[in-house]
Amino acid sequence: MNKEDCFYLGKIVKKYSFKGEVLAKLDTDQPEVYEHLETIFLELRNNLVPFFVEYAQLHKSELLRIKFEDVDTEADADSIMKSNLFLPLDLLPKLEGNTFYFHEVIGFTVMDKNYGHVGMIKSINDSSAQALFEIESNGKQILIPMNDEFILKVDRNTKTILVETPEGLIDLNF
User: Fold this and answer.
1) In this structure, are 109 and 72 located in the same domain?
2) Which domain holds residue 121?
3) H/E element holding 11?
4) Residue 19, CA distances (Å) to 70, 77, 78, 116 in order
5) pLDDT on residue 28
6) How many CB atoms lie within 10 A of CB 39?
7) Whether residues 108 and 87 fall in one domain
8) Could you give the angle at the alpha carbon of 128 between the alpha carbons of 107 and 90, nearest 5°?
9) Is the pTM value of this prediction over 0.70?
10) Are 106 and 86 in a shared domain?
11) Is the pLDDT of residue 173 over 80?
12) Which long-range contacts (CB under 8 A, 24 or more apart) does 30-35 make?
């Protein structure tokens, strides 16, 4: 399995018991969706390795307590500590309307209600306080905040996002 075919689910943050159970912090608003997984890919030495799940259950609402097959001791659990967890993209719940996954809109065209054609989304910058669309337009980079008030429509069929940005925001990028 390649990383490009997967999405980041979370990270193993600590051991739970001496029987190899671990606690994972999931990067989701709906951790309960992932209680019944059969397999999870762990990133070990830059490779995704499938681990079979014996059982998993929510622990204190935000962590997932996981028991993997063949991880039966504290030493086994130590060997997978801090590993990132991945799942195939086809296991992502489908989103509708103006909600979207960041990876899903890469390559979408951005149109502004007042400005017109802005450009194509090259990436999402989520390292700042507010996530930003990084858009390429005629060799230049345009940054637009991913603000719900700016996003009017996400059209998956035409791969277009219609926004209405404050006057002058797009011109600031030039």
Assistant:
1) no
2) 102-172
3) strand 6-15
4) 10, 8, 11, 59
5) 81
6) 14
7) no
8) 40
9) no
10) no
11) no
12) 30/93, 31/58, 31/61, 31/62, 31/63, 31/64, 32/58, 33/93, 34/9, 34/64, 34/87, 35/64
Predicted confidence band at 30 (pLDDT cuts at 50, 70, 90)? confident
Residue 71: other Cβ atoms inside 10 A:
22
CB of 66 within 8 A of CB of 22?
yes
Q: Is residue 96 part of a domain?
A: no
Q: List, for residues 139-170, the tens digit of each pLDDT value.
A: 999 999 999 999 999 999 999 999 999 988 88
Residue showing tokens 């637009």: 144
What is the distance between the alpha carbons of residues 37 and 46, in angstroms, rounded to a whole number? 22
Is residue 73 within 8 Å of residue 18, measured between CB atoms? Answer: yes
H-helix or E-strand containing 79?
helix 74-80
3-state secondary structure of 91: helix
